[in-house]
Amino acid sequence: MSRKLLVTGGAGFIGSNFVHHWCKTYPDDRVVVLDALTYAGNRGNLASLEGKENFRFVRGDICDRTLVDKLLQTENIDIIAHFAAESHVDRSILGPGAFVQTNVVGTFTLLEAFRQHWQTNNQPLNYRFLHVSTDEVYGSLAPNDPAFCETTPYAPNSPYSASKAGSDHLVRAYYHTYGLPAIITNCSNNYGSYQFPEKLIPLMCINILMGKPLPIYGDGKNVRDWLYVNDHCSAIEVVIQRGTPGETYNIGGNNEVENINLVQMLCQLMDELALDLPVRPSQNLITFVKDRLGHDRRYAINSNKLQTQLGWTPSVTVEEGLRLTVEWYLTHRDWWEPLLSEEYQAYYRKNYLQSAS
Ligand code: NAD
Ligand code: TYD
């Protein structure tokens, strides 16, 4: 039987990759995207789906209860895949208010609307609320600590991760209190196509192409556990299909890399793949800048539960994924150039002026 999905934040980085993945894998399912098109949302990411019978785009805010109620009812939604969020740590340091509003109040609004919808329809067994969250809720690891697992206590350190932690707690409470069939996934750092230029990997690729400094916070030895976005999408698919309501699943690719090493890998790939570079070798652009406030030292995720219980495995190594990503940014200048808007330049100046050492 075909399913009806409401995908919030489906015009953002991971959301749009997920929508493409789902529509390709399950063409008979109906996918409704609800996205406010903030600076990070781009309807063009979904251009190839516009006009298709089983696809609909709605511009709107997840905090708008009337709109969410109407969509759940008229579209007869049975699955919410909830990606919509304010997602950038540096922006959460500059202005945390929007993070509380969208990530906490927005998730609460969706939960309340979905609870009413699920109860009104006599609690169908196939309904799911899939909440997409982050490994950052677990806080920061010391070099030899074991990787985060699903029972690691929450210890968020940034306004971003605190707002995501708040939303996770609400989702958990809706399962325990009302029995709402909700599942949480906590994933490590993603990279791949359609990622907004403010995040580390696209920022470095674009700055290399423009001959601009490559700002590395602190000593560059912070560690992130990188996952190719397509592998995140396949993990969410598996969790929607086979995950148990009330459970949490960690998602990660076992790819811990220090920031400085990652940027050096990107420089080498760019030197190899890009024809005209203003500065070559591009690692001459590397510039150490003042550290991010409250900068978490290390993230690492243990995804054994997802792998052993639900049979998911990542498909690409970080070397393969980075090459695919660099190739994508090299061939999609028309996608990222318009995003370097005046608003983006203002954000960039504000963030990196503060971090100039
Ligand atoms: P993104 O910033 O690229 O996209 C967010 C999308 O949500 C945008 O399209 C934006 O327009 C939309 N949005 C924002 N506020 C909204 C609102 N109030 N109502 C409706 N839509 C709104 O983010 P992303 O990197 O694709 O992340 C998606 C989800 O995955 C987030 O929940 C994030 O916390 C989580 N996550 C991200 C990563 C990562 O590395 N990017 C890792 C783990 C988890
Ligand atoms: P980011 O992509 O912002 O993801 P997150 O903060 O959610 O992990 O940053 C990844 C890592 O790269 C993080 O340790 C901060 C660092 N970083 C820099 O050193 N310079 C930069 O300009 C940016 C954006 C990030």
UniProtKB/TrEMBL annotation:
| The protein's enzyme class | lyase
Residue ranges annotated for the NAD(P)-binding domain, each copy included: 6-323
Which BP terms from GO are recorded?
nucleotide-sugar metabolic process
Give the UniProt keywords, A-Z: Lyase, NAD
Entries under InterPro entries matching the protein:
dTDP_Gluc_deHydtase, NAD(P)-bd_dom, NAD(P)-bd_dom_sf
This enzyme catalyses: dTDP-alpha-D-glucose = dTDP-4-dehydro-6-deoxy-alpha-D-glucose + H2O
| E.C. number(s) listed in UniProt | 4.2.1.46
Q: Which GO terms describe its molecular function?
A: dTDP-glucose 4,6-dehydratase activity
The Swiss-Prot or TrEMBL record lists the needed cofactor(s) as:
NAD(+)
Give one Pfam hit by family name: GDP_Man_Dehyd
Can you tell me which family this protein belongs to?
Answer: Belongs to the NAD(P)-dependent epimerase/dehydratase family. dTDP-glucose dehydratase subfamily.
Matching PANTHER family = DTDP-D-GLUCOSE 4,6-DEHYDRATASE-RELATED
UniProt-recorded name of the protein: dTDP-glucose 4,6-dehydratase
- The organism named in the record is Hassallia byssoidea VB512170
Q: Which gene encodes it?
A: rfbB
